[in-house]
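Suppose a colleague, Dr. K., hands you the sequence of a protein chain of 213 amino acids and asks what its three-dimensional shape might be. Before reaching for any lab equipment, you can write down a predicted structure in token form. Begin with the sequence itself:
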Amino acid sequence: MLTMTKETKNPEMTESGNDAQNENNAKLAELIKAVFHNGVTALKMFFDEVTGQVVNQERLGPIFVFQVKNESQQVYACGFFLQELVARFQSGNDPAQWLSSFYFDLMEEEGGKPLPKPPNGEVETKALIDGKLVPHCIESIREEFAPEQVHAGLGIVKEHGPVFEAGFPSIKDGNNVCAVPLQVLLTHWLLNRNPADILIRGLYNIKEKHGSE
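The predicted structure, expressed as tokens, is then:
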């Protein structure tokens, strides 16, 4: 009897579940298509040549990578996350200007800037994190909040594993630390995004909550 109970399924419930999943998948596909189109259209307001692709990151979901060329035909690439693009397009807060600003920043470096090559294996990943990612974040944070003392460095959070932590020793009460998983920061780095921006925004949120300037 136990075996029969285990194997017996309600076909209507199964079909209903599959239909719901299929509908969700279809809606997501339409959303991705619309966001991709809007991204290309927005960038074409500033750049003549725009190409792009959508890749799926297991933890962070769909990522939109757009490439543009400057007048010298040099390629600059940058990646964006689905939720941030949806929020920006829905806000109506000049998404084209916002998107293009990342490329104008990249173009300060002559010669083009395609996406960096991902590290191959643990050794290369650790070398990238220790040699470039962490020093960059520390320097950017301290420069942003100088001369205020800021704690910045690596830590471990049980739910998320290795994280980069930053906080203000001067704030004693409540939450005074911003922690971002290293994987998230590394993904930003590999998308030609400044990973320190996430930490800096988090630190400003802490200061705002504590009424600090």
